[in-house]
């Protein structure tokens, strides 16, 4: 016999927020703090919801909470419903003033420090009242938020999914792993730096995700550069200051320093080996169009990328992934 639960009448938004918070925090105490309620009040709310659904939503563990299959199913729906309401709120704001909407961006760390600031500066200049909301994380963390409508698109390095996931991937530029140094570095003193010139200088390397780290290690192997005694840091600001103030050279995704490359404070050291391709661009949902604010952001991003390409700092690709502009810095040099 089918049980009628009448969820549309009995489940309220505060129930959905509670489940979302408990799944995210894996703890009643931490979820209560996030929601601004007492733990007994949240416990009562959870029991009320489990009675309504006639399902146990969480397993109580000695240290925290683990969602059951029903809990995960409800949390997925809760995230989608709450995300749609947040987007509706932002869209309604845009009806009063089409130039004051909000674009919700998911961004990978390299893009967040490299390409994104220039694009947002252009966006702000064109639409001063338009807002951008940023979510930074790894692709696998951002995709559920894209599916739920919490973010409009993801910007950054494009990795092939292990299985088809229903999202559209559009390559726009390359994020090559490169050797960077300050513009007046001794490595640029001769007509063309060779590998021996690079080996005379100490390295500074970013502490990055496992994927990017493996790509950096791959280029170091190709160049026979020894990273054992190198300086490492997770701070973009620290790496930038050390590059500008010392003779250190960096091996990192080139466009992490896009601003300094455009200003001419840093330069790319041409390499005797081609760097492996690292396409970057957009991940978009197939089932919903971008809002007006999202389209405005894309126009600003494309304009910023066009400037980067015109300066020869990287390859800019077309929507089909084909090169749209050559990389004038990647000359072949003798070892």
What can you tell me about this protein's structure?
With about 325 residues, this protein is α/β, with parallel strands linked by helices. The chain has three domains: about 10-80, Winged helix-like DNA-binding domain superfamily/Winged helix DNA-binding domain (Arc Repressor Mutant, subunit A, Orthogonal Bundle), CATH 1.10.10.10; about 100-175 and about 280-310, Periplasmic binding protein-like II (D-Maltodextrin-Binding Protein, domain 2, 3-Layer(aba) Sandwich); about 175-270, D-Maltodextrin-Binding Protein, domain 2, CATH 3.40.190.290. It is about 45% helix and about 20% strand. Strand 1 and strand 2 (about 65) form a beta hairpin. Helix 7 packs across helix 13. The longest helix is centred in the first third of the chain and has 28 residues, at about 70-95. It is elongated and about 80 Å long.
Short summary:
With 335 residues, this protein is of the alpha/beta class. It has three domains: 8-78, Arc Repressor Mutant, subunit A, CATH 1.10.10; 100-174 and 282-310, D-Maltodextrin-Binding Protein, domain 2 (3-Layer(aba) Sandwich), CATH 3.40.190; 177-269, D-Maltodextrin-Binding Protein, domain 2, CATH 3.40.190. It contains 13 helices and twelve strands.
